């Protein structure tokens, strides 16, 4: 990994006045971290407190308070005399997180097989409508976003609040890993085929099959990361 760090300007809008600027700053910064390509570069990602203050349109006090909370939750880390950095997981940690996600999402799929409405499943299928005529590799950014929405939707359709809560913080890292891996080893085409099989199982209300396919699909990501992943040590 390169030793130099990268100072990153997050894609966030100014905050409107509200009762808690710290809460608003926390929500805005966490959302921006979630949406950034944190594993798409080798160098560390440093946040600029002054730039965040300027971008959000607030003083540095609520920014510092928000960053303190984010550090307590494990999303950023403060390094003396160097600054604030986005936390990125090691390869071993990432694989463990994917295994946990596989367990949770596969159970959500089992629940969704009976709980999701026909309309919900039609909307799930429609996520990949644009890729029926052309390969996902022809529209990689769009497919990557659809891929991520697919897995979020499986969690939501399971209708279990505890699973949704447990996957919420994992999602920041899982999203970044999926965004990188789907571009490697022609995984996008294989991913699309597996998504279609999962949707078919859900439409058939086959809970056993839906659960197994989701688990195997996600564990396939873990195997890919084990073989090809280059992440912080």
From TrEMBL:
Q: Which domain of life is it from?
A: Bacteria
Q: Which GO terms describe its molecular function?
A: DNA binding; DNA-binding transcription factor activity
Q: Which InterPro entries match?
A: GntR_C, TF_FadR/GntR_C, Tscrpt_reg_HTH_GntR, WH-like_DNA-bd_sf, WH_DNA-bd_sf
The protein's matches in Gene3D superfamilies, at most eight in alphabetical order, are given as: GntR ligand-binding domain-like, Winged helix-like DNA-binding domain superfamily/Winged helix DNA-binding domain
User: Which key words are in the record?
Assistant: DNA-binding, Transcription, Transcription regulation
Please name the CDD domains in this protein's record: WHTH_GntR
Residues covered by the HTH gntR-type domain: 19-89
Question: What is this protein called in UniProt?
Answer: HTH gntR-type domain-containing protein
């Amino acid at each position: 990994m390169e030793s130099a760090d990268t100072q990153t300007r997050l894609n966030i809008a100014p905050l409107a006045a509200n009762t808690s600027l710290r809460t608003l700053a926390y929500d805005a910064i966490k959302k921006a971290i979630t949406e950034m390509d944190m594993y798409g570069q080798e160098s560390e990602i440093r946040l600029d407190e002054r730039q965040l203050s300027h971008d959000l349109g607030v003083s540095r006090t609520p920014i510092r308070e928000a960053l303190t909370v984010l550090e307590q939750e494990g999303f950023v880390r403060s390094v003396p005399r160097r600054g604030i950095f986005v936390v990125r997981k090691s390869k071993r940690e990432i694989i463990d997180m994917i295994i946990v996600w596989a367990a949770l999402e596969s159970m959500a799929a089992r629940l969704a097989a009976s709980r999701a409405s026909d309309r919900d499943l039609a909307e799930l299928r429609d996520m990949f409508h644009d890729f029926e005529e052309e390969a996902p590799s022809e529209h990689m950014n769009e497919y990557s976003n659809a891929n991520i929405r697919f897995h979020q939707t499986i969690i939501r359709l399971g209708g279990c609040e505890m699973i949704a809560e447990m996957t919420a913080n994992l999602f920041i890292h899982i999203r970044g890993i999926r965004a990188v891996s789907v571009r490697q080893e022609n995984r996008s085409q294989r991913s699309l085929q597996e998504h279609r099989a999962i949707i078919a199982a859900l439409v058939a209300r086959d809970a056993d099959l839906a659960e197994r396919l989701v688990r195997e699909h996600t564990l396939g990501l873990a195997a890919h990361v084990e073989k090809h992943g280059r992440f912080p040590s």
